[in-house]
Design a protein that fits this description.
189 residues; alpha+beta; Peroxidase, domain 1; Glutaredoxin
């Protein structure tokens, strides 16, 4: 099984438990916390993924650190990941979990990239237009990228709509470079 397929299977199990127990948002938040911790704290990540430490020492460590702070479901889930040597996939599992929750709730995450921060009216307009086109609730994330000359880039899942000025100029340049100029059309002084 590919890595993201494995992550989806684990995520689906966690979503099912969260639905059954009515604590889905809590589990998603807690797993996101652990995934973020693995990104931010290199020592924590290295300890969890290192083959130098036994599975039992890793599980004991998780119990000491997270018991009483995170739900028993997440602590047990992390222990299962360690038993199956899947702890390095915590971030991917969290992403898959978020995707599954979004699908179940008819939501779409969209990233809008511009040179400068957009005003609320423009953000609301983009959000309402996308909601009408996609027939889904839109969760919009705005990013500022000063390397963009102007315009907007919209990322919807794997789809990228590049309406930036830089992209337009690049297309014009490529068109000019690829077009043939006939010599008799050239001007002479």
């Amino acid at each position: 099984m590919a890595g993201n397929e494995v992550a989806r299977v684990y995520a689906a199990s966690l979503v099912e438990i969260g639905d059954e127990k009515g604590i889905l948002s809590q589990l998603e938040e807690e797993l996101g916390f652990v995934g973020g911790l693995m990104k931010e704290d290199k020592d924590f990540k290295e300890y969890l993924v290192s083959p130098s430490f036994s599975q039992e020492s890793k599980k004991d460590f998780l119990n000491k650190v997270f018991s009483g702070k995170l739900s028993d479901y997440i602590v047990k889930f992390l222990r299962i990941l360690i038993e199956n040597d899947r702890q390095s996939a915590i971030g991917e599992i969290h992403e898959s979990m978020v995707d599954l929750i979004d699908i179940a709730n008819n939501r779409q995450r969209v990233t809008v990239i511009t040179r400068e921060k957009l005003d609320d009216v423009t953000i609301n307009k983009i959000q309402s237009d996308l909601k009408a086109k996609l027939n889904k609730e839109i969760i919009l994330t705005e990013k500022v990228d000063e390397s963009i000359l102007g315009g907007i880039i919209i990322k919807i899942g794997d789809l990228v709509v590049d309406g930036s000025l830089a992209k337009g100029l690049k297309n014009i340049r490529n068109t000019l470079l690829n077009s043939k100029v006939r010599s008799e059309v050239a001007y002479e002084d």
